[in-house]
Amino acid sequence: MTAEYKVHGDVAVITMNNPPVNGLGYATRVAITQGLDQANADPAVKAIVVTGAGKAFSGGADIKEFGSAKATQDPNLLSVIRALENSSKPTVAAIHSVAMGGGLELALGCHYRIAAPGANIALPEVKLGLIPGAGGTQRLPRVLGVEPALNMIVSGEPVKSELLAQLPGQKLFDKMAASPETLAEEALAFARSVADARPLPLVRNLPAKHPQGDAYFQFARNMVKGMAKNFPAPAKCVDAVEAATKKKFEEGMVFEREIFTNLMFTPECRSLRHLFMAERAASKIADVPDDTPKRAIERVAVIGAGTMGGGISMNFLNAGIPVTILETKQEALDRGLATIRKNYEAQVKKGKLKQDKYEQRMALLKPTLSYDEIKDADLVIEAVFEEMGVKKAVFETLDGTMKQGAILASNTSTLDLDKIAAFTKRPQDVVGLHFFSPANVMKLLEVVRGAKTAKDVMATVMALGKKIKKTAVVSGVTDGFIGNRMIEQYSRQAGFLLDEGATPQQVDKAIEKFGFAMGPFRMGDLAGNDIGWAIRKRRAAERPDMLYSRTADKLCELGRFGQKTGAGWYDYQAGKRDAIPSKLVEDMIVEHRKSLGIEPRKISDDEIVQRLVFSLVNEGARIVEEGIAARASDIDMVYITGYGFPIHRGGPMQYADEVGLFNVVQAMKRFGQNPRDDAKFWQPAPLLAKLAADGKTFS
Ligand code: NAI
């Protein structure tokens, strides 16, 4: 049963029981209404308490029903709320732990509400590109006041029950229980105290008013416009709450429903829902079931205290896991530690970290020059120079010193993990943990599964990824793994576009308008153009068939590595990061075109965006086809969390679905006919071609 019915003397208690968070799925909705019928038909029952079992009152809609017909099958949530309102006996919501979305809307349909302190109260629909759709925008302003309600609806953020209870004049909670433990008893007593109260109070009958109505909503609209950028839902939250103050209740409900339904069909909403599901899917590995035993990770060692080693260490310190960091020289160790300290001190200065927390974290960090001091670590992460010889020496030493069962991880970004694993006699314990720079900030963690990596190692590091608040995505072994293998194709397109007639600033502007945080040339200047140069030199030897524009090499030959050398694709003023278009670079590009005999043409922003994004899509499709990524949505997670792909587009693969795979394939065929481009690359990946031909999508 997904909701239990029990009578305690003269009070009936309906307890939602649909783990993990009592999602309001069809069966639960049916069970609640049946309980209500039963209670109203039983002359011995005088009042009804509705509550939740386990870890929540209710977390709202049941995500298992997302997008299915069951989600709206009657009794839908609106019908359940109506049944609660129309109950001839008083209904009391007893709220603890979590009341979110539909769960809060359900509580607002009850005649009374009693809450335990510490409960998280929220209407988070905006985070999925929606507004609350079962009366939340109409009822919450009536119980909290317009401003606090709108703040909650627009942000989607949870607020603690005890804070809401302190709002002057609030009618959200009729009573606060002393503690979560006493809530059940206090709810029964409260229900008895209102058993004879008539008429029964309804939130819908309360007024929703703001003393400066129009001026306030104007102000709210301006605020939201700045915040919401590419998303329509936040502004619609303002419209809906305003309607609560201006329309009759039932008209407001119709208005809310209309907005909700319209938003449901926007690409932005589809993208956010896609990413919500994608994040959950990414944590699953088909042949590694959830109940796979995990190794305990209580102590971590990091080899190399450079750019990455320091940032990686911070992740574990932040999670309260002790870290020993090993270097070859004292100076390097000192430098590494100083950087970690500086990073934390900056956070303390900004008020983001308390001094005592900072000290606690630093106390967990131990520097060393000796492998003897790390041999008992449960996990060691190597972040030394990107050279196979250095990795070999380190992994042979680790193999000889680390305790049995320790996980040996490499942060390599380009080297073959299986080769690294083969330096040890325990390749089953070797895994790639590819962090992104700055490693203490970036969400993405590519978990590289070697040919021999053990299943319990995979299960352990995926769980650990969650613990250190990363989005972990599994990648097979391939050059560049998922993210960098794709970005190489994107960079190649950016280069061809310059050869054909675009300027760096035109390319950057076009893709930034599409929504990327930074275009490829500004990005290159930030990361260092010499990195790509080194990769291209290696490619020239390994893959002479891979065509490149030579402009980026020419730029590097001029020593223009980017911000760190004060000049790159753009000019920079000392101490500033503003990218200033460079006459010198422009002349260099023009000169280069002449030498190739290219007559420059005007290139549209559309073509720029399509060539850049569809290059990601085609390589992404190959990556899925080869089994390097388990699913297309994993690629979207990589691009959203690691590469600044615009969230409202949902990732490259989701964007391709939105455009329509048929159209994507047509565009690729067109690009393949361009003599300055790489016809072979633009052959649609077989998976993509097949999906397009069958009228299907990646998702
Ligand atoms: P880095 O040059 O800043 O740091 C490397 C550190 O390793 C230096 O402090 C060096 O003294 C130390 N080291 C060298 N040999 C050692 C040894 N045998 N034992 C102990 N320590 C040793 O390099 P970075 O950027 O931190 O890169 C480290 C690894 O992370 C490389 O494999 C790189 O490909 C990878 N990576 C780098 C990213 C980046 O954006 N910098 C991003 C993702 C991965």
Radius of gyration using CA atoms only:
29 Å
> CATH homologous superfamily name of the largest domain?
2-enoyl-CoA Hydratase, Chain A, domain 1
Which runs of at least 5 residues are low in confidence (pLDDT < 50)? none
CATH architecture of the largest domain: Alpha-Beta Complex
How many helical elements? 28
Number of domains: 3
**Coarse morphology:** globular
What is the terminal-to-terminal distance? 32 Å
Question: What can you see in these coordinates?
Answer:
- The chain has 699 residues and is α/β, with parallel strands linked by helices.
- It has 3 domains: 260 residues, 2-enoyl-CoA Hydratase, Chain A, domain 1 (Alpha-Beta Complex), CATH 3.90.226; 176 residues, NAD(P)-binding Rossmann-like Domain (Rossmann fold, 3-Layer(aba) Sandwich), CATH 3.40.50.720; 211 residues, N-(1-d-carboxylethyl)-l-norvaline Dehydrogenase, domain 2.
- The protein is 48% helix and 11% strand.
- It is built from 28 helices and 19 strands.
- The protein has an 8-stranded mixed beta sheet, with helices on both faces.
- The chain is globular.
- The two termini are 32 Å apart.
- The relative contact order is 0.06.
- The mean pLDDT is 96.
- The structure holds 1,4-dihydronicotinamide adenine dinucleotide.
- The site of 1,4-dihydronicotinamide adenine dinucleotide (NAI) has 24 residues, from α12 and α15.
- Keywords: Fatty acid metabolism, Isomerase, Lipid degradation, Lipid metabolism, Lyase, Multifunctional enzyme, NAD, Oxidoreductase, Peroxisome.
- One of its GO terms (molecular function) is NAD+ binding.
